[in-house]
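Quick one: structure for this chain?
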Amino acid sequence: MSLETLSEHRCFGGVQGFYRHASTEIGLPMKFGVFVPPQAVHGPVPVLFFLAGLTCTEETFAIKAGAQRMAAELGLMIVTPDTSPRDTGIDGASAAWDFGHGAGFYLDATEAPWAKHFRMESWITQELRALVLANFAAKPDRVGIFGHSMGGHGALTLALRHPGLYQSVSAFAPIAAPGQCPWGDKAFTGYLGTDRSAWAAHDATELVKAGHKAPPLLIDQGLGDTFLAVQLHPHLLQAACVDADQPLVLRSHPGYDHGYYFIASFVEDHLRHHAQALAGH
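Got it. Here's what it folds into:
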């Protein structure tokens, strides 16, 4: 698979790079970032996919989270995909910050006009995964996934929908029950239509209720998050996990909001969570 290097930067003994490729799944060029830790010069290392939230790009986590220092220490590669197709030519795709460009919700759309290009699930789980494994020193049997907000939703649902694909999972302030919040209602109606049974297949809480399993989950949630009460609903996922015996550690943090100061405060914990889980594979 051909890969275009946009830029590469020496970082904590490793390399933070940004790349573009012509995606077959999306039908358009797609961008992503990769942090390659210094250990990769000696052979393949575990790899984490980080899914960013609404309005973000492939650069957001790499620039704001401060994850590279600990990733270099632990020997973890981090892949940061863009959050949606870009320049799709779809009328109204840039009209709202919470739908369309920058808001792919990590699913394959089934409704016109979105279905042609908005195939984020297939891109992340199949095409981009294969591209990374073919071009970087990543271990195919030591792959984790984590994310923030919309990307936390993506990390949870992709792990639940694709058993065995990811060996570790975590999330920061995820949209934990998108079928029961305004963000999810808007996105699912637009991308999947009005049949709520189709929504349940992309809702972490409903997937757990239906018996889907994932590796032990770590979720951090700031209690000063202004989106918590209306959009995120981690308590619904927690209740579903208790009923289904799905391992979950949900940590609540007074005073922390929804942004990257929160993520930067706890990203080391998440990287250690993944490193420990992936070391056993």
